[in-house]
Amino acid sequence: MNEFIISVNDLKKKIKVEGNYLLFNDKKFNFELQPLNSNLFLFKLGDKFYEVYTKSLSEGKLLVAMKGRQFEVIVRTELQEKAAMMMESAGHSNHHVEIKSPMPGLILKFKKKIGEEVEAGEPVLILEAMKMENELRSPAKGKIKEIFVKEGIAVEKGVTLFMIE
Amino acid sequence: MFKKILIANRGEIAVRVIRACRELGIKTAAVYSEADRTSLHIRLADEAYSIGPAQSSQSYLDKEKIILLAKEIEADAIHPGYGFLSENPEFIKMLEDEKITFIGPSSKSAAMMGNKIAARNLMRENGIPIVPGTLKPVSSEKEGKKSAEEIGYPVILKAGGGGGGKGMKKVFSEKDFLPAFESASREALSAFGNPEIYIEKFFVSPKHIEVQVIADKHGNYAHLFERECSAQRRYQKIIEEAPSSSVDGKTRTKITEAAVFAAKACLYYNAGTIEFLMDKDKKFYFLEMNTRIQVEHPVTEMITGIDLVKEQISIAAGNRLSFAQDDLKINGHAIECRICAEDFLNNFLPSAGEIYYYREPSGKDIRVDSGFNLHSIISINYDSLIAKQICHAPDRGNAIKKTAAALSEFLVAGVITNIPFLVSILNHNLFTSGSYDINFIEKHISELNEQAAADSGENLDEVAALFAAVMKSGSVPKNKIKTPKNNRWSDLIYE
């Protein structure tokens, strides 16, 4: 089956590829694809060409950039999507969310302590990068279970900073 | 004229200076840190010298190292760009002692304006209205709270050591004072090496109006009209324009007069900018003076036809201004957009990394000043500015349309940019009507973000999803275009 579940910016879209057609939201689009090099494509959708840069990222993600936008896209078949959903809900059963550093920077200050309650969207720590202080917010409501880094240290991108229960 | 200029900066402003030097027939020496090995300025300069690790303190801010290099390579002048050492009186003094020309003001003028608190006092003594607030640095939390009480909340905390949004914090009530004070002091110390903070009244809906001034070493002063930079987020300007649609002829006469007066008060030569806040009644208040070329200088160049960087170099070499005040007229309208590597959907966190793919817009009256190119790396060590797009048109309405059209041509892959966010600002009715103020973006941030996320109706996320599905389906041709049989035009050939 050429049917896929595509996640872009946390939104899922169901798309079917049939020959030269794409089916999405009950609409049918004609497409063409012309590779310019291994990363660069001319993608024609209906009557419009898009110049698309793409690159495989870690964890099965695909970087897709066009015009002034850049997306990290996950493409799964329906079966893969079901498996991923099951894994996710299994992961959620112990109710832990790990928050990773979105960029390299310097940990300036923790605004919360271990054991403190946080609301979703509440600032937890200040990370300095590009000469600015950036607030990192909690993605979920819960309690700070663990803090893995100290104030004053530099962290790389992807380092686990703290855990919410 | 100079034979060789060392450019003590990086990014787009280093490129801008190189271009001016090349036109003037002056050799250019670029400097670069480890993090800038792939930047554009080192590809364009006649000579390029590695000056140390990524941390600015050990490269672009290392005064001794830069002066030693200038002597060794026999550079007779240094252009500081903006930021880094551009407003550092100590550095300028060292150059004066070494008889290397600093392309900027004297160390004395820079010192008079560099301390923002001293500058406020100087302006007040000269009868130029200043924003109400403290005239001395705030030494403690207790004293600060007392001053804030007297000024009346809301207030804004600012760094005495320098401007540019670093160390600025708004405070709406007494209970928020302490964390803001601490954070402002920290940022001020790290940005300027000086934790001094002063307090100003926070105006609720002012416009940011600034005047470009220029003066030579022979006592000739001129202004190049005003710019409006009210489109700001976290005190960082995002879109700038010249002239301001809110400054009428009478106000323009008054504000430009005040600006030239301010430049005279500090015995200024070089290009400089006097920043003001302007309220609804067109009353204006001095904010600060920037004693260097400004990021947004191109909009002024577009409407006046004057090359400010070439003029700076010529003034430093001892020449008179190449024009008189009466030669200048405002020609049309120009808008600059700052293309920054930041993720507007994720609280504007900076987005660092390699630029995998890059193409700039072009066309009539479209200018792009950028510091990076294919495979350049946007480093976490410096600010997030990738490029500036400047468009010029006969009037403001057309300048806005041209700006949006040009932005739609930009192609950047590898880092996330604010381009969709810029487009959503340009489309907003408060921007198009010209009635926006410095709190416009923060007030309408969710609305602007929503528009940006949907690419102002273009929904590129859907296109990305459709593209990804095609890639996954395996229907990617190896090298030949996949021509659909049902293309209604495929049998027709146009000649």
Structure explained in plain terms:
Helix content of chain A is 9%, strand content 58%. Chain A has 165 residues and is mainly β. Chain A has two domains: 3-92, 2-Layer Sandwich (Glycoprotein, Type 4 Pilin); 97-164, OB fold (Dihydrolipoamide Acetyltransferase, E2P). The longest helix of chain A has 15 residues, at 78-92. Chain A is elongated, with a radius of gyration of 20 Å. The model of chain A has no long low-confidence stretch (mean pLDDT 87). Chain B is of the alpha+beta class and 495 residues long. Chain B has three domains: 4-103, Rossmann fold; 132-201, Dna Ligase, domain 1 (2-Layer Sandwich), CATH 3.30.1490.20; 207-457, D-amino Acid Aminotransferase, Chain A, domain 1 (2-Layer Sandwich). Chain B contains 17 helices and 22 strands. Chain B has helices spanning 11-24, 41-44, 63-72, 89-98, 107-114, 116-125, 141-151, 177-192, 249-265, 297-304, 308-316, 396-407, 419-427, 429-432, 440-443, 445-453, 460-473; strands at 4-7, 27-32, 47-50, 77-79, 101-102, 155-159, 169-171, 197-201, 207-215, 221-233, 236-242, 270-278, 284-290, 333-340, 342-343, 349-350, 353-354, 357-359, 366-370, 377-378, 385-393, 411-413. Chain B has an eight-stranded antiparallel β-sheet with strand order 13-12-9-10-11-14-21-19, with helices on both faces. A five-stranded parallel β-sheet of chain B has the order 3-2-1-4-5, sandwiched between helices. In chain B, helix 4 (89-98) runs antiparallel to helix 5 and helix 12 runs antiparallel to helix 13 (419-427). At the A-B interface, strand 1, strand 2, strand 4, strand 5 and strand 6 of A face helix 8, strand 16, strand 22, helix 13 and helix 17 of B.
